[in-house]
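User: As part of a screening pipeline, I want to sanity-check one entry by hand. Below is the sequence and the SMILES for adenosine-5'-diphosphate. Please return the complex as structure tokens so I can compare it with the automated output.
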Amino acid sequence: MSTGASPPLLKIHRIDKSYGSTRILKSCSLEVAPRETIVIVGPSGSGKSTLLRCINLLETVDAGNILFDGRDLTRERKAEHLVRQQIGMVFQNFELFSHLSAVENIMLAPMTVSGVSRHDAHDLAMVLLNKVRLRERADAYPDELSGGQQQRVAIARALAMKPKVMLYDEPTSALDPEMVSEVLDVMAELSAEGMTSLVVTHEMGFARRAADKIVFMDAGEVILTETSEQFFSGTTHERARRFLDQILH
Ligand SMILES: Nc1ncnc2c1ncn2[C@@H]1O[C@H](COP(=O)(O)OP(=O)(O)O)[C@@H](O)[C@H]1O
Ligand SMILES: [Mg+2]
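Assistant: Here is the complex for your manual check:
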């Protein structure tokens, strides 16, 4: 968790995104300080995934700026390379390479993007597998792993680039209920160790435990940013409160 006020590592400033004539993101702004964990909640279709996809340049924005570590990703010439190296992404459906074993999935980006040797990439991958408690499954292929195990490999794969920030898009929503906590525990541990994280999830237990701030999105807008304490002690924002009531009951 964050310990105090620092300049933001990630600053999203009034970004707009439309598909055709439909405005999906409407002047969204958001700041993530180093070591901070922010949880984004909001109804389906409110633009949460689109926001994360804009941050890691899977989508282009129509207006606004995305400042990462002081550099504007919407203008920087080598932005894609910077993002692939320094922003880790974990998706709902794991998206592991099915023809590669767990350890090979984790070794791939350090070897191909950063030029790390096979030997060093393997050492690093084993450390990371240990961290996500899957050392003994290093040689298993994705279809031999449970959903919870696959998602933990996906987290280790993202960590292999030693990212400055981790983005998670509903990382547990495709999992059977009994596997949710093994993934959330790994994420919470990373947050507690100071990994800057932006997490789209409706797992409110995780949010309460790990988040410094909660952001509520609705219909393409960031309509609320509160500290976790403010939010869970009874947010005064009516739409956010109704949404919270719905998902908690
Ligand atoms: N590639 C796309 N083309 C057109 N519309 C899209 C595309 N991706 C998302 N949308 C629309 O954008 C809105 C926000 O989607 P999304 O960011 O996935 O929301 P959330 O993640 O909050 O559920 C939805 O109405 C969705 O239908
Ligand atoms: Mg989504």
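Points to compare against the pipeline: Residues 19, 24, 42, 44-50 surround adenosine-5'-diphosphate (ligand 1) (CB under 6 Å). Residues 10-95+163-248 form a domain with the Rossmann fold fold (CATH 3.40.50.300).
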